[in-house]
Amino acid sequence: MSLLKLNNVNVTINGNNEKIEILKNIDLTFEDNKIYVITGPNGGGKSTIAKSIMGIIPVSSGQIILDDIDITDKSITERAKLGIGYAFQTPARFKGLKASDMLNLAKGENNTDICQLFYDVGLCAQDYLDREIDATFSGGELKRIEIASILARNPKIALFDEPEAGIDLWSFQRLTETFEKMHQRYDTTIIIISHQERILRLADEVILVDDGTITEITSREKFLETISHIDSDCACRNECIKGGVINVDCDR
Amino acid sequence: MLTAIDKVLLEKIADLHEIPQGAYNIRKDGQGISRNTTKNIDIITKQDKPGIDIIIKPGTKGESVHIPVILSKEGLTDVVYNTFEIGEGSDVLIVAGCGIHNAGSDDEQHDGIHEFYVRKGARMKYVEKHYGQGGGTGKNILNPKTIIEVEENGVAELEMIQIKGVDKTVRDTDVILHKNARLIVSERLHTYMVQNAESNINVKLMGEDSSAQVISRSVAQDDSKQVFHMNLLGYNKCAGHIQCDSIIMDNAKVSAIPEISAFHSDAQLVHEAAIGKIASDQLIKLMTLGLTEKEAENIILKGFLG
User: Is residue A108 one of the residues assigned to a domain?
Assistant: First the structure.
């Protein structure tokens, strides 16, 4: 049973003239075999929470505890070895590194079938094994390899930063299936940053982050209810340029 | 006779574990020590200067020629002129390369001048690897000069790799391409400590529909220096592309000097050059897979120099 805790975590960076608080007093607990979706407006601090868990962004104060080990001062490498994995929103491209090299590095000693990993993310292994992860990869292909690299590691804690960004509709379906499968097969704690309703539907808990703080932790049912309420009771309706007519998708 | 050191050098530069199959000529410390010719490939010692003529009969397909040079005597300067006649319609692999073992305090130097005539419709792949070892204070110096003329519909593919241990190198490559001839160059260069490398590649696209693609990748570490001067000259309807990519580290210095010149309105020439350190997002990605920063760096460099 693994448990990840953030205790009173603050992240502050130096701005031009003043200190800017990115995260303020974040307290969170993540249990295993659960799916958490972190959502909220852009610039609210969602990615910073995930990056501070992976050690990519150092925390200014507070503690991060994984299975009773204080990992606050541990490096990215050490945290990775303790079982944390991170799928980047915009994955890096590598000249000279093949997709199979990446997945072999990711799987390490795990007895994972590389070809199966390609199929799991909807890519033909034969076509992709020997392809370099360079500028010839589309954004969608890159994201799928990135997600496969997390599946290869089978980490205790899997962080996905906007996994749906840049993925087409067909693979969106596969993406949600991938999370569901991971959830069924393993005890992984899955933490997904997302704005997508279909991903929110997977959540055991929805964490709302705005302006560097946690504004609400709620269940998926409650959250979806709130969304439908907002939809039907759209605040823009009175000033809507479309006149608030029915059948207009309003994304505001 | 090949010593254990010779065998290591041969493996590094020509992937050879034993005496190669097919035609070969092994040159050691300024002298030819072993040679084999085949029905289609002849190797003749030059009479007027050191070196050999390699003559490949028209229509020869799928054969290879290995011509490694190994040096293990300090204080030696070896100059060699080799001429390759790649017969019409043939398709061959030529593996050259120079390995130096210098355990002494005097310099060892090999200047190889290679001239290629790739005849009509012929296809040649040329692989050249340079490697030095020995641990002495004497320098390992390699100055290859490569001159290539590709006739109508011919293809020349060059792989030029400096693996490690070469203290000083000046590489000159001059190519002339005729009608519909194609050139593909892939250069890999790695320098470290106080090593110095200079690579000059000049390609004249003379014939209609000739094309050239030059991809150069390098890594410069420690206090080493690299200078790239690449020049494409288009005299006809042609296409040329140079891509020069360098990873710079520590206190190294890298200059990439681009030059493209067109003398015809249908010449299309592109030069891309980039110098930079290893991207931090690459390092971080590999670290999130459990690699240390140093391990991540090695994987990235190894892949880049492929």
Answer: yes
CA distance A8 to chain B (A): 24
- Structure-token pair, residue A72: 């606050």
Closest CA of chain A from B292, distance in Å: 6
Residues of B in contact with A91 (CB under 8 A): 285
Secondary structure class of A225 (helix, strand, coil): helix
CATH number of the domain encompassing residue A219: 3.40.50.300
Nearest CA in chain B to A158: B288
Residue B150 lies in a domain: no
The reply to whether ipTM tops 0.95 is no
pLDDT at A148 over 50: yes
pLDDT band at A252 (very low <50, low <70, confident <90, very high): very low
Q: Are residues B106 and B179 in the same domain?
A: no
Residue A206 lies in a domain: yes
Q: For chain A, give the percent of residues with pLDDT over 90.
A: 57
Query: Residue A56: its chain B contacts at CB < 8 A?
Result: 284, 288
Q: What is the domain extent for residue A131?
A: 32-54+81-233
Same structural domain, B80 and B177 = no
pLDDT in tens, A158-174: 999 999 887 776 678 88
A154 contacts in B (CB within 8 Å)?
Answer: none
A47-64 confidence digits (pLDDT tens): 999 999 999 999 999 999
Give this prediction's pTM: 0.85
**Which amino acid, one-letter code, is at B184?**
I
Q: Is residue B290 within 8 angstroms of chain A, CB to CB?
A: yes
Answer yes or no: do A91 and B217 touch at CB < 8 A: no
Residues linked to residue A230 through DSSP beta bridges, in sequence order = none
Contacts of B220 (CB under 8 A, 6+ apart): B191, B192, B226, B246, B247, B248, B249, B252, B253, B254
- Domain membership of residue B68 as a residue range: 1-136
What is the tally of structural domains in chain A?
Answer: 1
Q: Looking at the complex, does the CB of residue B274 fall below 8 Å from at least one CB of chain A? A: no
Q: Which residues of chain B have pLDDT under 70?
A: 1, 16-20
Structural domain contains residue B158: no
Could you tell me if residue A145 is inside a domain? yes
Strand, helix or coil at A50?
helix
Question: Which of B190, B289, B304 is most worth mutating to test chain A (most A CB atoms within 10 A of its CB)?
Answer: B289
Residue A59 lies in a domain: no
Residues A7-29 as b or e (16 or more Cβ within 10 Å = b): bebbbeeeeeeeeebbbeebebe
